[in-house]
Specification:
Topoisomerase I, Chain A, domain 4, 18 strands, Type I-E CRISPR-associated protein Cse1/CasA
Length: 623
Amino acid sequence: MTGAPSYDLLSRPWIPVYTTGGEGEREVGLREALQSAHRHNLARLGLSGEGLVLLRLLLAVYEAAAGPVDDDGWDAAWRAPTLDPHGRIADYLDRWANRFDLYDPDRPFAQCAHLAEPNRGAVELHPAWLGGQGAAWFHPGLYRGADHPPWEPGEAARNLLVRMAYDTGGIKPAAPGDPAGKGNKVYGSRIGPLGATVRLVVLGATLKDTLLLNLPPAPRAPGDAPEWERDEGPPAGIRVDRVPAGRLELATMPARRLRLFPDRDGRVARWAWHDGDRVAGYWNHYHRLDPTLLCRDSRDGQGTADPDAFDPYGHQPRWWLLTRPLHVPPAADPRRWHSGALVHAVGAARRGLLPADLPLRVWVSQAVYNTHGSVAVGDHNGRVDLGPVGVHAAEPTARVVAFLDHQTAATLRGLAVAAAEALPHVTLGDRLTPDAYALERLWSDTTRRLAALDTDPSHEELAGVCLDYGRRLVGLCAQALDRLPFGGSSGMLMRAKAGVALERYVAYFTDLPTKPYPRKVTPVQARAFAAAAAGARARRSGGRKPGSGRGAGGGRPSPMLVAFGEEKTQAQWARDERCVVSVSALRSRLINGWDPEAALTTPGRRAPGAAPDDTEREGEESS
């Protein structure tokens, strides 16, 4: 690499932006991207993973240089005309300028300088190559194969960061000297940090606003530093299970050992690719440190899990679920949804920094991989307008949003149940959903109506909004039912029965609680919820201890289950009209980690005379 060209990422163009004045898209360096962040925005944020990767880097650079450490500092940064009113970003970038050279022979940016032999060609640096060799069937950029032209430096830098963040898991080439290598291969590699998680980004009017809205203030943790501030770069043959000291280390950790090998003109046709460092206690650290992560607590309380943020069939964001990080379920379930950026943005509105009528717009993204994580098969993403931020900041209207969230989810599950019962032989019956555009219009109209209420609305006014919303939602569900192929007198009778079943959900929208849901569940509250549930179980069992049997003959008491704000035994739920499966199938689903309400209301895909599906078969075996 002696005599290799230089490419300064601080000054040379490589980050696509567009100006708020409508001058079109152009590329800028890191320095201009931050110092002029009040005049432009990232061009591809909200369109692809590349935009998210660049935002992640800009967040890390800004936080390391001048990130606010408390609410007062954040408020001052929000009010400032630029992101760098005191020159702290400029001073920081001057200090570390030598670490931002893409081709530096000793410390190439985001790379491992110890790798001396390339093992991949230009076509494999294309982001679409994450889809495997079969991706060439559908992507024209991969048609040339080995004849793929070299990458220009800016494109190579972006593709390098995309590969670091979204790389597939499984088997990787072993780096020279890697003690874990077997036959020149390393096993058990994890999916890249952005690919393995669901991301929620709060979108601002400019890049300055977007950066601040997604960066909750916090002091730098002891020992925390971005990768470019460390004395030495990552070694080639040693992979480390690292416990990140803070947000900066987590955001810049080298999840892969990569190295670009440019030609004399600075273009890249060859590069090296190996496994990198792994995060020990993966979920716990991302949950604690990464504000753009969207996740929820697992059922056992030991970690976090991916939320079902997207419709499994249309792959559109389930907007009614995205406000859940701001509240807890009505049944006081201690499992929480988490989004540091969303909670932070609403907190800024409560402090009066954001105008109440500012639209709270978010972008949600989730990369999809095959079963083994070895091939990327898709990217679900979408922008969602959650309504004016003041609706979520004020307690009365936030309580309505929390209520509508859970009633919407229950009603849409009821639509699937009604469709499956009416036409059990129609495969798409349990996938039926109302028109997505109409649903968004309904939510937009409702949030605007909530925003127009007085600052202290009466319970009757709020309940009226909920009831109108419920009626319109059930009407949209009825329109969706009309899309199914009902034919003949018997078919119309089934359609009428399904409509009657749907109408009962309107009544659920009349039960708006008069007390707010807690915005946070403390450990004390969680223990209180558990104690209350245990007390209810004891009362129902006549004061007997769990496992002591029931009745004169003994026996195992049926486990309790909380759903729709009610607590019953699994046997009692199996007799409830909302349950569409047997108690054995219900028990099997719960063991396999199903959401309780989904386990109760999702029909088994079994036609008369057909073999049972996996869930039913497991349930029969367990019984």
